[in-house]
Amino acid sequence: MKNLLAALAFVIFAAGTMYYVPAQSESVQNPVTISHAMAMNGEPKYGPEFTHFDYVNPEAPKGGTFRQSALGSFDSLHPFIVKGNPADGLALAFDTLMVQSYDEPFTMYGLVAEKIEYPADRSWVIFHINKNARFHDGVPIQASDVQFSFNTLIEKGSPLYAQYYAGVKKVEILDRYRIRFSFGDELNRELLLILGQLDVLPEHYWKNRDFSLTSLDPLLGSGPYRVEKVDQGRSITYVLDENYWGKDLPVNRGLYNFKRIRYDYYRDATVMLAALKSGEFDFYEERMSKQWATAYVGPPFEKGLLKKETIKDGTPAGMQCFAMNQRRELFKDRRVRYALAHAFDFEWTNQNLFYGMYKRTDSYFENSEMQADGKLSSEVLKILEPLRADLWPEVFTQDYAPPSTAGENGLRNNLRKAFTLLREAGWTVQDGVLKNVSGKPFVFEILIGQPTMERVVLPFTQNLKKLGIQANVRVVDTSQYINRLREFDFDMISFVFSQSMSPGNEQRWFWSSQAADTAGTRNFNGIKNKAIDRLIELVIAAESREDLVNRCKALDQALLWGHYVIPHWYNDEHHVAYTAKMRHPANLPPFSLSLESWWIDPEKAGGE
Q1: Is 561 inside a domain boundary?
Q2: Long-range CB pairs of 542-546, under 8 A, 24+ apart, other chains included
Q3: Which domain holds residue 13?
Q4: CA 238, CA 225: separation in Å to the nearest integer?
Q5: Structural domain includes residue 394
Q6: For the chain (length 608 residues), average pLDDT per consecutive 10?
Q7: Which of 65, 371, 464, 487 has a C-alpha 20 to 30 A away from that of 121?
Q8: 109 part of a folded domain
Q9: CATH code, domain with 531
Q10: How many domains, in total, are found in the chain?
Protein backbone atom coordinates (compact mmCIF):
# COMPACT_ATOMS: atom_id res chain seq x y z
CA MET A 1 0.00 0.00 0.00
CA LYS A 2 2.81 2.41 0.85
CA ASN A 3 4.44 1.92 -2.57
CA LEU A 4 1.08 2.25 -4.30
CA LEU A 5 0.29 5.53 -2.56
CA ALA A 6 3.74 6.89 -3.38
CA ALA A 7 3.13 6.24 -7.06
CA LEU A 8 -0.15 8.12 -7.18
CA ALA A 9 -0.94 11.80 -7.38
CA PHE A 10 -3.26 12.94 -4.61
CA VAL A 11 -5.27 15.92 -3.53
CA ILE A 12 -5.09 17.79 -0.23
CA PHE A 13 -8.04 19.80 0.96
CA ALA A 14 -7.08 22.77 3.11
CA ALA A 15 -9.48 25.52 4.12
CA GLY A 16 -11.90 24.33 1.44
CA THR A 17 -9.37 24.73 -1.41
CA MET A 18 -8.13 21.91 -3.62
CA TYR A 19 -4.40 21.75 -4.31
CA TYR A 20 -2.72 19.54 -6.87
CA VAL A 21 0.32 17.57 -5.71
CA PRO A 22 2.32 15.71 -8.39
CA ALA A 23 2.90 12.00 -8.22
CA GLN A 24 6.34 10.68 -7.38
CA SER A 25 6.95 9.85 -11.04
CA GLU A 26 6.53 13.53 -11.81
CA SER A 27 8.66 14.73 -8.94
CA VAL A 28 11.55 12.33 -9.65
CA GLN A 29 11.45 11.10 -13.24
CA ASN A 30 9.56 14.11 -14.55
CA PRO A 31 10.51 16.96 -12.18
CA VAL A 32 8.18 19.92 -11.86
CA THR A 33 9.40 23.50 -12.23
CA ILE A 34 7.70 26.54 -10.68
CA SER A 35 9.12 29.73 -12.13
CA HIS A 36 8.54 33.39 -12.95
CA ALA A 37 9.45 32.70 -16.60
CA MET A 38 9.88 30.02 -19.22
CA ALA A 39 12.22 29.80 -22.20
CA MET A 40 11.49 27.77 -25.30
CA ASN A 41 15.02 26.39 -25.09
CA GLY A 42 17.53 26.78 -22.28
CA GLU A 43 17.06 29.12 -19.34
CA PRO A 44 15.47 32.59 -19.16
CA LYS A 45 17.92 35.48 -19.38
CA TYR A 46 16.32 37.33 -16.47
CA GLY A 47 16.18 35.73 -13.05
CA PRO A 48 13.32 35.94 -10.53
CA GLU A 49 14.77 39.06 -8.89
CA PHE A 50 15.14 41.12 -12.07
CA THR A 51 13.79 44.67 -11.90
CA HIS A 52 13.40 45.53 -15.59
CA PHE A 53 14.42 44.42 -19.08
CA ASP A 54 17.84 45.58 -20.23
CA TYR A 55 16.45 47.40 -23.25
CA VAL A 56 14.26 49.88 -21.37
CA ASN A 57 14.96 53.10 -19.52
CA PRO A 58 13.40 52.51 -16.08
CA GLU A 59 13.61 56.25 -15.40
CA ALA A 60 11.82 57.30 -18.59
CA PRO A 61 9.42 60.19 -17.95
CA LYS A 62 5.69 59.64 -18.36
CA GLY A 63 3.39 61.93 -20.28
CA GLY A 64 2.53 63.41 -23.66
CA THR A 65 0.59 62.06 -26.63
CA PHE A 66 2.18 59.63 -29.06
CA ARG A 67 0.48 60.10 -32.44
CA GLN A 68 0.73 57.22 -34.88
CA SER A 69 -0.66 56.59 -38.34
CA ALA A 70 -2.66 53.70 -39.78
CA LEU A 71 -3.62 52.82 -43.33
CA GLY A 72 -7.20 52.33 -44.49
CA SER A 73 -10.03 52.37 -41.98
CA PHE A 74 -11.66 50.39 -39.18
CA ASP A 75 -15.20 49.38 -38.26
CA SER A 76 -14.77 47.37 -35.07
CA LEU A 77 -13.22 47.47 -31.59
CA HIS A 78 -13.48 43.68 -31.26
CA PRO A 79 -10.08 42.20 -32.22
CA PHE A 80 -10.82 38.61 -31.27
CA ILE A 81 -13.24 37.56 -34.01
CA VAL A 82 -12.89 37.17 -37.76
CA LYS A 83 -15.66 39.67 -38.55
CA GLY A 84 -14.93 43.32 -39.14
CA ASN A 85 -11.72 45.34 -39.50
CA PRO A 86 -10.50 46.09 -35.95
CA ALA A 87 -8.79 49.34 -35.03
CA ASP A 88 -5.03 49.49 -34.54
CA GLY A 89 -3.61 49.38 -31.03
CA LEU A 90 -6.37 47.40 -29.34
CA ALA A 91 -3.83 45.06 -27.74
CA LEU A 92 -2.92 47.97 -25.45
CA ALA A 93 -6.17 47.43 -23.57
CA PHE A 94 -5.73 43.72 -22.86
CA ASP A 95 -3.26 41.87 -20.69
CA THR A 96 -2.07 38.36 -21.42
CA LEU A 97 -1.05 35.63 -19.01
CA MET A 98 2.62 36.25 -19.78
CA VAL A 99 4.72 38.61 -21.91
CA GLN A 100 7.65 38.01 -24.23
CA SER A 101 11.05 39.65 -23.92
CA TYR A 102 12.56 41.16 -27.08
CA ASP A 103 16.20 40.27 -26.47
CA GLU A 104 15.73 36.50 -26.37
CA PRO A 105 14.48 34.16 -29.14
CA PHE A 106 11.36 33.12 -27.22
CA THR A 107 11.04 33.51 -23.48
CA MET A 108 7.85 34.41 -21.62
CA TYR A 109 7.68 36.21 -18.26
CA GLY A 110 4.80 36.40 -15.84
CA LEU A 111 2.14 39.10 -16.14
CA VAL A 112 -1.43 38.15 -15.20
CA ALA A 113 0.09 34.80 -14.27
CA GLU A 114 2.84 35.64 -11.81
CA LYS A 115 4.20 32.07 -11.90
CA ILE A 116 4.12 29.09 -14.24
CA GLU A 117 4.32 25.46 -13.12
CA TYR A 118 5.13 22.61 -15.50
CA PRO A 119 6.85 19.18 -15.65
CA ALA A 120 9.98 18.39 -17.63
CA ASP A 121 8.00 16.72 -20.40
CA ARG A 122 5.74 19.79 -20.70
CA SER A 123 2.64 17.62 -20.73
CA TRP A 124 0.67 20.14 -18.65
CA VAL A 125 0.98 23.61 -17.22
CA ILE A 126 -0.48 25.43 -14.23
CA PHE A 127 -0.74 29.22 -14.31
CA HIS A 128 -0.70 30.98 -10.92
CA ILE A 129 -2.76 34.16 -11.23
CA ASN A 130 -1.38 37.31 -9.64
CA LYS A 131 -3.81 38.17 -6.86
CA ASN A 132 -3.37 41.88 -7.60
CA ALA A 133 -4.48 41.53 -11.23
CA ARG A 134 -7.61 43.58 -12.00
CA PHE A 135 -9.82 44.43 -14.95
CA HIS A 136 -10.42 48.10 -15.66
CA ASP A 137 -13.64 48.04 -13.64
CA GLY A 138 -11.71 46.87 -10.56
CA VAL A 139 -12.95 43.27 -10.59
CA PRO A 140 -10.16 40.80 -9.71
CA ILE A 141 -8.93 38.46 -12.44
CA GLN A 142 -9.48 34.84 -11.47
CA ALA A 143 -8.83 31.40 -12.92
CA SER A 144 -12.44 31.28 -14.09
CA ASP A 145 -11.76 34.28 -16.35
CA VAL A 146 -8.84 32.43 -17.92
CA GLN A 147 -11.01 29.36 -18.51
CA PHE A 148 -13.75 31.54 -20.00
CA SER A 149 -11.22 33.29 -22.25
CA PHE A 150 -9.81 30.04 -23.56
CA ASN A 151 -13.16 28.38 -24.21
CA THR A 152 -14.70 31.46 -25.78
CA LEU A 153 -11.80 32.18 -28.10
CA ILE A 154 -11.71 28.55 -29.21
CA GLU A 155 -15.46 28.38 -29.84
CA LYS A 156 -16.28 31.88 -31.08
CA GLY A 157 -13.00 33.65 -31.82
CA SER A 158 -10.88 33.77 -34.94
CA PRO A 159 -9.99 30.30 -36.32
CA LEU A 160 -6.42 31.12 -35.36
CA TYR A 161 -7.14 30.30 -31.72
CA ALA A 162 -8.49 26.82 -32.39
CA GLN A 163 -5.46 26.16 -34.59
CA TYR A 164 -2.95 27.42 -32.01
CA TYR A 165 -4.46 25.66 -29.03
CA ALA A 166 -5.47 22.42 -30.72
CA GLY A 167 -3.12 20.46 -28.45
CA VAL A 168 -5.01 21.37 -25.26
CA LYS A 169 -7.13 18.42 -24.15
CA LYS A 170 -8.35 19.50 -20.74
CA VAL A 171 -8.74 22.70 -18.72
CA GLU A 172 -9.21 22.53 -14.92
CA ILE A 173 -9.71 25.28 -12.36
CA LEU A 174 -7.72 24.14 -9.32
CA ASP A 175 -8.68 27.06 -7.11
CA ARG A 176 -9.50 30.74 -7.41
CA TYR A 177 -6.04 31.67 -8.67
CA ARG A 178 -4.73 28.52 -10.35
CA ILE A 179 -5.70 26.92 -13.64
CA ARG A 180 -4.27 23.80 -15.26
CA PHE A 181 -4.06 22.99 -18.97
CA SER A 182 -3.36 19.36 -19.90
CA PHE A 183 -2.11 18.36 -23.31
CA GLY A 184 -2.45 15.32 -25.54
CA ASP A 185 0.11 12.63 -26.22
CA GLU A 186 1.62 14.55 -29.12
CA LEU A 187 4.69 16.47 -28.00
CA ASN A 188 4.33 20.24 -28.40
CA ARG A 189 6.97 21.99 -26.33
CA GLU A 190 5.89 25.42 -27.48
CA LEU A 191 2.29 25.10 -26.37
CA LEU A 192 2.99 26.27 -22.81
CA LEU A 193 4.48 29.51 -24.11
CA ILE A 194 1.72 29.98 -26.65
CA LEU A 195 -0.83 29.64 -23.87
CA GLY A 196 1.07 32.37 -22.04
CA GLN A 197 0.05 34.69 -24.90
CA LEU A 198 -3.64 34.13 -24.12
CA ASP A 199 -5.58 37.38 -23.73
CA VAL A 200 -7.50 37.32 -20.46
CA LEU A 201 -11.11 38.43 -20.94
CA PRO A 202 -13.66 39.23 -18.20
CA GLU A 203 -16.32 36.55 -17.83
CA HIS A 204 -18.69 38.89 -15.98
CA TYR A 205 -18.57 41.47 -18.77
CA TRP A 206 -19.54 38.99 -21.50
CA LYS A 207 -22.29 37.25 -19.55
CA ASN A 208 -25.07 39.14 -21.34
CA ARG A 209 -23.23 40.05 -24.55
CA ASP A 210 -22.82 38.20 -27.85
CA PHE A 211 -19.11 37.55 -28.39
CA SER A 212 -19.57 36.80 -32.09
CA LEU A 213 -20.76 40.32 -32.99
CA THR A 214 -18.57 43.24 -34.01
CA SER A 215 -18.76 46.30 -31.80
CA LEU A 216 -17.70 49.93 -31.78
CA ASP A 217 -18.12 50.06 -28.01
CA PRO A 218 -14.81 49.67 -26.12
CA LEU A 219 -14.47 46.18 -24.64
CA LEU A 220 -13.53 45.75 -21.00
CA GLY A 221 -9.89 44.83 -20.59
CA SER A 222 -7.10 44.90 -18.04
CA GLY A 223 -4.14 46.36 -19.96
CA PRO A 224 -2.10 49.53 -19.45
CA TYR A 225 -4.40 51.62 -21.67
CA ARG A 226 -8.12 52.12 -22.12
CA VAL A 227 -9.97 53.33 -25.18
CA GLU A 228 -10.70 57.02 -24.59
CA LYS A 229 -12.14 58.31 -27.85
CA VAL A 230 -13.31 56.81 -31.15
CA ASP A 231 -13.94 58.61 -34.41
CA GLN A 232 -15.20 55.69 -36.50
CA GLY A 233 -12.89 54.85 -39.36
CA ARG A 234 -10.78 57.96 -38.81
CA SER A 235 -9.02 57.82 -35.44
CA ILE A 236 -8.85 56.07 -32.09
CA THR A 237 -7.27 57.38 -28.88
CA TYR A 238 -6.07 55.38 -25.89
CA VAL A 239 -5.36 56.83 -22.47
CA LEU A 240 -3.00 55.40 -19.87
CA ASP A 241 -4.90 53.81 -17.00
CA GLU A 242 -3.65 55.61 -13.90
CA ASN A 243 -4.84 52.67 -11.79
CA TYR A 244 -3.30 49.99 -14.00
CA TRP A 245 -2.68 47.08 -11.69
CA GLY A 246 0.58 45.97 -13.35
CA LYS A 247 2.40 49.28 -13.73
CA ASP A 248 5.09 48.41 -11.16
CA LEU A 249 5.83 44.88 -12.34
CA PRO A 250 9.40 44.26 -13.59
CA VAL A 251 8.07 43.32 -17.04
CA ASN A 252 6.39 46.75 -17.31
CA ARG A 253 8.95 49.03 -15.72
CA GLY A 254 10.20 51.54 -18.28
CA LEU A 255 7.33 50.74 -20.66
CA TYR A 256 4.05 52.51 -21.51
CA ASN A 257 5.44 55.97 -21.03
CA PHE A 258 2.88 57.93 -23.07
CA LYS A 259 -0.14 59.50 -21.42
CA ARG A 260 -2.09 58.99 -24.64
CA ILE A 261 -1.63 57.05 -27.86
CA ARG A 262 -3.62 58.06 -30.92
CA TYR A 263 -3.92 56.39 -34.30
CA ASP A 264 -5.03 58.54 -37.24
CA TYR A 265 -6.12 56.76 -40.41
CA TYR A 266 -5.03 57.68 -43.92
CA ARG A 267 -6.22 56.36 -47.26
CA ASP A 268 -2.80 55.92 -48.85
CA ALA A 269 0.90 56.07 -48.04
CA THR A 270 1.51 59.25 -50.07
CA VAL A 271 -0.93 61.26 -47.99
CA MET A 272 0.51 59.65 -44.87
CA LEU A 273 4.04 60.85 -45.65
CA ALA A 274 2.79 64.38 -46.32
CA ALA A 275 1.04 64.31 -42.95
CA LEU A 276 4.25 63.19 -41.22
CA LYS A 277 6.14 66.13 -42.75
CA SER A 278 3.37 68.46 -41.63
CA GLY A 279 3.74 67.29 -38.04
CA GLU A 280 0.40 65.48 -37.92
CA PHE A 281 1.86 62.38 -36.27
CA ASP A 282 5.10 61.40 -34.55
CA PHE A 283 6.54 58.18 -35.92
CA TYR A 284 6.66 56.26 -39.16
CA GLU A 285 8.57 53.22 -40.37
CA GLU A 286 9.20 53.54 -44.09
CA ARG A 287 9.02 50.27 -45.99
CA MET A 288 9.48 51.67 -49.49
CA SER A 289 13.11 52.13 -50.47
CA LYS A 290 12.37 54.78 -53.09
CA GLN A 291 10.59 56.89 -50.52
CA TRP A 292 13.38 56.46 -48.01
CA ALA A 293 16.01 57.42 -50.59
CA THR A 294 14.22 60.45 -52.02
CA ALA A 295 11.30 61.70 -49.93
CA TYR A 296 12.74 62.12 -46.44
CA VAL A 297 14.20 65.53 -47.15
CA GLY A 298 13.07 69.12 -46.89
CA PRO A 299 12.52 71.78 -44.21
CA PRO A 300 11.19 69.48 -41.42
CA PHE A 301 14.44 67.48 -41.56
CA GLU A 302 16.70 70.45 -42.18
CA LYS A 303 15.23 72.31 -39.20
CA GLY A 304 15.47 69.27 -36.93
CA LEU A 305 11.72 68.89 -36.52
CA LEU A 306 11.95 65.36 -37.89
CA LYS A 307 14.75 62.83 -37.44
CA LYS A 308 15.76 59.93 -39.69
CA GLU A 309 17.35 56.82 -38.22
CA THR A 310 18.39 53.41 -39.48
CA ILE A 311 18.09 50.73 -36.79
CA LYS A 312 19.41 47.18 -37.20
CA ASP A 313 16.68 44.56 -37.47
CA GLY A 314 17.62 41.15 -36.06
CA THR A 315 14.26 39.50 -36.66
CA PRO A 316 13.69 36.91 -39.36
CA ALA A 317 12.44 38.62 -42.51
CA GLY A 318 10.19 35.71 -43.43
CA MET A 319 9.06 35.35 -47.02
CA GLN A 320 7.83 38.34 -49.00
CA CYS A 321 6.60 37.06 -52.32
CA PHE A 322 4.01 36.59 -55.00
CA ALA A 323 1.91 33.75 -53.61
CA MET A 324 0.07 31.51 -56.08
CA ASN A 325 -3.25 29.93 -55.13
CA GLN A 326 -3.13 26.22 -55.98
CA ARG A 327 -6.87 26.04 -55.55
CA ARG A 328 -6.87 27.55 -59.02
CA GLU A 329 -6.26 24.98 -61.77
CA LEU A 330 -3.64 27.23 -63.40
CA PHE A 331 -1.22 26.91 -60.49
CA LYS A 332 -1.51 23.23 -59.57
CA ASP A 333 1.48 22.20 -61.67
CA ARG A 334 4.83 22.88 -59.96
CA ARG A 335 6.51 23.43 -63.33
CA VAL A 336 4.07 26.23 -64.13
CA ARG A 337 4.74 27.93 -60.80
CA TYR A 338 8.48 27.70 -61.35
CA ALA A 339 8.12 29.03 -64.90
CA LEU A 340 6.37 32.16 -63.65
CA ALA A 341 9.20 32.78 -61.16
CA HIS A 342 11.57 33.18 -64.15
CA ALA A 343 9.56 36.20 -65.33
CA PHE A 344 10.21 38.26 -62.19
CA ASP A 345 13.31 40.41 -62.68
CA PHE A 346 14.50 41.20 -59.15
CA GLU A 347 17.81 42.65 -60.30
CA TRP A 348 16.12 45.22 -62.55
CA THR A 349 13.49 45.96 -59.89
CA ASN A 350 16.05 46.50 -57.15
CA GLN A 351 18.24 48.76 -59.28
CA ASN A 352 15.54 50.85 -60.94
CA LEU A 353 12.80 50.98 -58.30
CA PHE A 354 14.55 50.35 -54.96
CA TYR A 355 17.84 52.22 -55.37
CA GLY A 356 19.70 48.98 -54.72
CA MET A 357 18.64 48.94 -51.08
CA TYR A 358 17.19 45.42 -50.89
CA LYS A 359 18.52 41.88 -50.85
CA ARG A 360 16.90 38.92 -52.59
CA THR A 361 14.85 36.62 -50.44
CA ASP A 362 15.74 32.95 -50.84
CA SER A 363 14.26 31.45 -47.68
CA TYR A 364 11.03 31.28 -45.70
CA PHE A 365 13.20 32.03 -42.63
CA GLU A 366 15.28 34.79 -44.23
CA ASN A 367 17.72 36.76 -42.06
CA SER A 368 17.96 34.00 -39.45
CA GLU A 369 19.99 30.95 -38.53
CA MET A 370 17.01 28.79 -39.54
CA GLN A 371 17.24 29.34 -43.29
CA ALA A 372 18.36 26.49 -45.52
CA ASP A 373 21.44 28.05 -47.06
CA GLY A 374 24.51 26.31 -48.42
CA LYS A 375 25.14 22.58 -48.39
CA LEU A 376 22.59 20.64 -46.37
CA SER A 377 24.04 19.14 -43.23
CA SER A 378 23.78 15.46 -42.41
CA GLU A 379 21.39 16.36 -39.59
CA VAL A 380 18.98 18.12 -41.95
CA LEU A 381 19.19 15.31 -44.54
CA LYS A 382 18.45 12.80 -41.78
CA ILE A 383 15.24 14.69 -41.03
CA LEU A 384 14.23 14.78 -44.70
CA GLU A 385 15.12 11.23 -45.71
CA PRO A 386 12.03 9.43 -44.27
CA LEU A 387 9.86 11.88 -46.24
CA ARG A 388 11.49 11.32 -49.62
CA ALA A 389 8.37 9.78 -51.22
CA ASP A 390 6.40 13.01 -50.78
CA LEU A 391 9.15 15.45 -51.73
CA TRP A 392 10.99 16.43 -54.88
CA PRO A 393 14.49 15.15 -55.80
CA GLU A 394 16.02 18.64 -55.66
CA VAL A 395 15.20 18.83 -51.96
CA PHE A 396 17.97 16.32 -51.26
CA THR A 397 20.58 17.47 -53.76
CA GLN A 398 20.43 21.21 -54.40
CA ASP A 399 20.61 24.49 -52.54
CA TYR A 400 17.64 26.59 -53.65
CA ALA A 401 18.18 29.93 -55.36
CA PRO A 402 15.41 31.97 -57.02
CA PRO A 403 15.85 32.59 -60.76
CA SER A 404 18.29 35.46 -61.31
CA THR A 405 18.63 37.85 -64.23
CA ALA A 406 22.16 38.90 -63.30
CA GLY A 407 24.59 38.88 -66.20
CA GLU A 408 24.22 39.36 -69.93
CA ASN A 409 20.86 38.36 -71.43
CA GLY A 410 19.70 37.30 -67.98
CA LEU A 411 15.99 37.90 -68.48
CA ARG A 412 16.03 36.44 -71.99
CA ASN A 413 17.66 33.26 -70.73
CA ASN A 414 15.11 33.05 -67.92
CA LEU A 415 12.19 33.37 -70.33
CA ARG A 416 13.64 30.58 -72.47
CA LYS A 417 13.74 28.37 -69.39
CA ALA A 418 10.17 29.38 -68.59
CA PHE A 419 9.00 28.39 -72.09
CA THR A 420 10.62 24.97 -71.64
CA LEU A 421 8.88 24.42 -68.30
CA LEU A 422 5.52 25.54 -69.68
CA ARG A 423 5.80 23.21 -72.70
CA GLU A 424 6.55 20.31 -70.36
CA ALA A 425 3.37 21.21 -68.46
CA GLY A 426 1.27 21.19 -71.65
CA TRP A 427 1.23 24.90 -72.51
CA THR A 428 2.13 26.26 -75.95
CA VAL A 429 2.04 29.66 -77.62
CA GLN A 430 -0.60 30.03 -80.32
CA ASP A 431 -0.83 33.37 -82.14
CA GLY A 432 1.07 35.02 -79.31
CA VAL A 433 -1.20 33.59 -76.60
CA LEU A 434 -0.17 30.83 -74.21
CA LYS A 435 -2.82 28.08 -74.28
CA ASN A 436 -3.26 24.60 -72.83
CA VAL A 437 -4.24 21.45 -74.74
CA SER A 438 -7.90 22.48 -74.53
CA GLY A 439 -7.16 25.83 -76.13
CA LYS A 440 -7.78 27.79 -72.95
CA PRO A 441 -5.54 30.88 -72.61
CA PHE A 442 -3.35 31.48 -69.57
CA VAL A 443 -5.12 34.42 -67.92
CA PHE A 444 -5.07 35.29 -64.22
CA GLU A 445 -5.41 38.20 -61.79
CA ILE A 446 -2.86 39.66 -59.38
CA LEU A 447 -4.70 41.09 -56.38
CA ILE A 448 -2.99 43.87 -54.43
CA GLY A 449 -4.16 45.96 -51.50
CA GLN A 450 -1.78 48.90 -51.88
CA PRO A 451 -1.55 51.05 -55.04
CA THR A 452 2.19 51.51 -54.38
CA MET A 453 2.76 47.85 -55.38
CA GLU A 454 1.64 48.58 -58.93
CA ARG A 455 5.08 49.86 -59.88
CA VAL A 456 6.51 46.44 -59.00
CA VAL A 457 3.69 44.35 -60.42
CA LEU A 458 3.31 46.04 -63.81
CA PRO A 459 6.87 45.29 -65.06
CA PHE A 460 6.30 41.69 -63.95
CA THR A 461 3.11 41.50 -66.03
CA GLN A 462 5.02 42.82 -69.05
CA ASN A 463 7.53 40.00 -68.72
CA LEU A 464 4.67 37.51 -68.41
CA LYS A 465 3.18 38.97 -71.57
CA LYS A 466 6.34 37.92 -73.42
CA LEU A 467 5.41 34.35 -72.45
CA GLY A 468 1.92 34.80 -73.88
CA ILE A 469 0.40 35.14 -70.40
CA GLN A 470 -2.20 37.79 -69.60
CA ALA A 471 -1.87 38.91 -65.96
CA ASN A 472 -4.43 41.51 -64.92
CA VAL A 473 -3.70 43.73 -61.92
CA ARG A 474 -6.56 44.50 -59.55
CA VAL A 475 -6.17 47.05 -56.73
CA VAL A 476 -8.81 46.88 -53.99
CA ASP A 477 -9.29 48.72 -50.71
CA THR A 478 -8.03 47.30 -47.44
CA SER A 479 -11.35 45.84 -46.28
CA GLN A 480 -12.03 44.07 -49.56
CA TYR A 481 -8.45 42.80 -49.71
CA ILE A 482 -8.70 41.29 -46.22
CA ASN A 483 -12.07 39.68 -46.95
CA ARG A 484 -10.88 38.15 -50.21
CA LEU A 485 -7.79 36.73 -48.55
CA ARG A 486 -9.91 35.21 -45.79
CA GLU A 487 -11.97 33.35 -48.39
CA PHE A 488 -8.97 32.50 -50.62
CA ASP A 489 -10.72 34.42 -53.39
CA PHE A 490 -7.72 35.32 -55.54
CA ASP A 491 -5.29 33.91 -58.10
CA MET A 492 -2.04 35.57 -57.00
CA ILE A 493 -1.26 38.05 -54.25
CA SER A 494 1.74 39.94 -52.96
CA PHE A 495 2.20 38.93 -49.32
CA VAL A 496 4.70 38.68 -46.47
CA PHE A 497 4.74 35.43 -44.48
CA SER A 498 6.30 36.73 -41.27
CA GLN A 499 8.39 34.53 -39.00
CA SER A 500 9.62 34.73 -35.42
CA MET A 501 12.86 33.67 -33.78
CA SER A 502 11.10 30.58 -32.49
CA PRO A 503 8.78 29.12 -35.15
CA GLY A 504 6.13 26.73 -33.90
CA ASN A 505 2.37 26.31 -34.01
CA GLU A 506 1.86 29.12 -36.51
CA GLN A 507 3.52 26.96 -39.17
CA ARG A 508 0.33 24.89 -39.24
CA TRP A 509 -1.54 28.11 -39.95
CA PHE A 510 0.75 28.83 -42.91
CA TRP A 511 1.40 25.52 -44.63
CA SER A 512 -0.63 22.58 -43.25
CA SER A 513 -3.18 20.54 -45.19
CA GLN A 514 -5.77 21.31 -42.53
CA ALA A 515 -5.22 25.06 -42.87
CA ALA A 516 -5.61 24.78 -46.64
CA ASP A 517 -9.27 23.89 -46.08
CA THR A 518 -9.91 26.44 -43.31
CA ALA A 519 -11.06 29.93 -44.30
CA GLY A 520 -9.21 32.69 -42.48
CA THR A 521 -5.88 30.88 -42.23
CA ARG A 522 -2.73 32.00 -44.02
CA ASN A 523 -2.27 28.92 -46.16
CA PHE A 524 -3.00 31.15 -49.11
CA ASN A 525 -1.10 28.82 -51.43
CA GLY A 526 -3.42 25.89 -50.69
CA ILE A 527 -0.47 23.63 -49.78
CA LYS A 528 -1.40 20.02 -49.10
CA ASN A 529 1.66 17.84 -48.70
CA LYS A 530 2.15 14.98 -46.22
CA ALA A 531 5.87 15.61 -45.89
CA ILE A 532 5.37 19.30 -45.11
CA ASP A 533 2.67 18.39 -42.57
CA ARG A 534 5.16 16.08 -40.88
CA LEU A 535 7.95 18.67 -40.91
CA ILE A 536 5.62 21.21 -39.29
CA GLU A 537 4.95 18.81 -36.43
CA LEU A 538 8.67 18.15 -36.04
CA VAL A 539 9.32 21.88 -35.75
CA ILE A 540 6.63 22.19 -33.09
CA ALA A 541 8.03 19.22 -31.14
CA ALA A 542 11.69 20.37 -31.20
CA GLU A 543 13.26 19.86 -27.76
CA SER A 544 16.35 22.04 -28.20
CA ARG A 545 17.44 25.10 -30.12
CA GLU A 546 19.66 22.92 -32.30
CA ASP A 547 16.74 20.63 -33.13
CA LEU A 548 14.53 23.62 -33.93
CA VAL A 549 17.09 25.17 -36.27
CA ASN A 550 17.71 21.93 -38.18
CA ARG A 551 14.02 21.14 -38.50
CA CYS A 552 13.26 24.65 -39.73
CA LYS A 553 15.99 24.25 -42.33
CA ALA A 554 14.38 21.01 -43.47
CA LEU A 555 10.94 22.64 -43.66
CA ASP A 556 12.45 25.58 -45.53
CA GLN A 557 14.08 23.29 -48.08
CA ALA A 558 10.81 21.45 -48.70
CA LEU A 559 8.77 24.62 -49.10
CA LEU A 560 11.28 26.26 -51.41
CA TRP A 561 11.38 23.36 -53.85
CA GLY A 562 7.60 23.25 -53.97
CA HIS A 563 7.83 26.54 -55.91
CA TYR A 564 4.72 27.79 -54.12
CA VAL A 565 5.84 31.41 -54.27
CA ILE A 566 7.96 33.82 -56.28
CA PRO A 567 10.39 35.31 -53.73
CA HIS A 568 10.71 39.09 -53.51
CA TRP A 569 13.21 40.93 -51.33
CA TYR A 570 14.00 41.88 -47.75
CA ASN A 571 15.81 44.48 -45.69
CA ASP A 572 17.68 43.82 -42.43
CA GLU A 573 17.23 47.38 -41.21
CA HIS A 574 14.39 49.51 -39.87
CA HIS A 575 14.09 52.87 -41.64
CA VAL A 576 12.27 55.18 -39.24
CA ALA A 577 11.45 58.86 -39.01
CA TYR A 578 10.11 60.56 -35.90
CA THR A 579 9.47 63.95 -34.41
CA ALA A 580 12.17 65.70 -32.38
CA LYS A 581 10.25 65.22 -29.14
CA MET A 582 10.55 61.41 -29.34
CA ARG A 583 13.25 59.50 -27.47
CA HIS A 584 14.17 55.84 -27.27
CA PRO A 585 16.54 53.75 -25.10
CA ALA A 586 20.14 53.61 -26.31
CA ASN A 587 20.13 49.82 -26.43
CA LEU A 588 17.01 48.84 -28.34
CA PRO A 589 16.48 45.06 -28.44
CA PRO A 590 17.46 43.04 -31.52
CA PHE A 591 14.01 41.60 -32.17
CA SER A 592 11.74 44.65 -31.93
CA LEU A 593 11.62 48.43 -32.19
CA SER A 594 9.89 48.20 -28.79
CA LEU A 595 7.87 51.39 -29.27
CA GLU A 596 6.31 50.85 -25.86
CA SER A 597 9.75 51.66 -24.37
CA TRP A 598 10.01 55.04 -26.13
CA TRP A 599 9.01 58.29 -24.45
CA ILE A 600 8.49 62.00 -25.05
CA ASP A 601 11.11 64.48 -23.91
CA PRO A 602 9.23 66.80 -21.49
CA GLU A 603 11.27 69.77 -22.71
CA LYS A 604 10.17 69.10 -26.29
CA ALA A 605 6.57 68.15 -25.60
CA GLY A 606 5.20 71.56 -26.48
CA GLY A 607 2.88 71.82 -23.51
CA GLU A 608 1.10 68.52 -24.05
Answers
A1: yes
A2: 542/189, 543/187, 543/189, 544/41, 545/40, 545/41, 545/42, 545/105
A3: 1-25
A4: 6
A5: yes
A6: 32 31 52 95 94 97 96 95 95 98 95 96 96 98 98 94 90 98 84 95 97 95 98 96 97 98 93 94 91 93 96 92 97 98 97 91 95 89 97 95 93 97 96 95 96 93 97 92 94 94 90 94 96 96 90 98 97 95 95 96 73
A7: 371
A8: no
A9: 3.10.105.10
A10: 2
